[in-house]
């Protein structure tokens, strides 16, 4: 995955989907290593503006100077769920022309063992996108009860062996704290061996714990509801997801926002506040074979696009 660290996923479809205007105001809500931001900025003129947001201090620190020195660009450290506040502080509510959210964990986060995201590299069991905020995955595992852990593994990891894995984790932590990624991976492998699976037995459990620790789905739901408030008419919303849980939330939000409020559905005169807020643009876009060959992370990517009405 290291070779993919700076490869922005679905770049062409994103740039087309945003329908960038040279003098427009755009938000990259998940800056990462700045791949999308770099290309968006190239399409902006002198009056254009790009605001990027990320809660990971390493992402902020790694931002290249050619971006941070550009007067059209601003990089904000914060949670994406703070979108409305960030935009309001800049007096831009109702003036944003495009929003991009590239969800999930980034390749650099997976590549760095000390971040604790990957079972492929032994490191401290952390998993926080913002290491300065909230409990680490190790601390979370020490505090969560077995029943809640099973629920998280089923809901966020769609793990069929959730009960068996939760029971194994509960038993192991009574003997010693679970503080390393390799330690947790071994517990999961012993509880639910591979037996013909295409993916590593720990894949879904690590995903579930990461989502829980970072409140990723709550962050997504919050920022989607805020997005319609900050966009101007004709603005574009682009959401890239990498697993079914994220994609279902984005799909459902766009579908619901593209309809009249239920109590007015089918009626000839719908009050403005109950009229559709979005128009869905096409079907979900997936990477082609050429992109997947260059960037393996693109295999599971889905891009959904909607326009503010």
Commentary on this structure:
41% of the residues lie in helices and 15% in strands. With 309 residues, the protein is an alpha/beta fold. Helix 8 (146-157) packs across helix 11 (203-214), helix 9 (162-175) crosses helix 10 and helix 12 (216-230) packs parallel to helix 13. The radius of gyration is 20 Å and the shape is globular. The chain is built from 14 helices and eight strands.
Percentage of β-strand residues: 5-15%
The secondary-structure element order is HEHEHHEHEHHHHHHHEHEEHE
Question: What gross morphology would you assign?
Answer: globular
Mean pLDDT reading: 94
The largest sheet, given as strand count, sense and whether it forms a barrel, is: 8 strands, mixed
Number of strands: 8
Low-confidence stretches: 1-5
Distance between the termini: 39 Å
Rg result? 20 Å
> Structural class given helices, strands, pairing?
alpha/beta
What is the helical fraction, as a range of percent?
40-55%
Number of helices: 14
List the helices and strands and how they pair.
Layout: H1 11-18, E1 25-28, H2 35-42, E2 49-54, H3 57-61, H4 65-68, E3 73-77, H5 83-89, E4 96-102, H6 107-111, H7 137-143, H8 146-157, H9 162-175, H10 181-191, H11 203-214, H12 216-230, E5 231-241, H13 244-257, E6 278-280, E7 285-286, H14 289-294, E8 302-308
Describe this protein with a few key phrases.
309 residues, alpha/beta, eight-stranded mixed β-sheet, disordered N terminus
Could you provide a short overview of the structure?
With 309 residues, the protein is of the alpha/beta class. Helix content is 41%, strand content 15%. β1, α2 and β2 form a beta-alpha-beta unit.
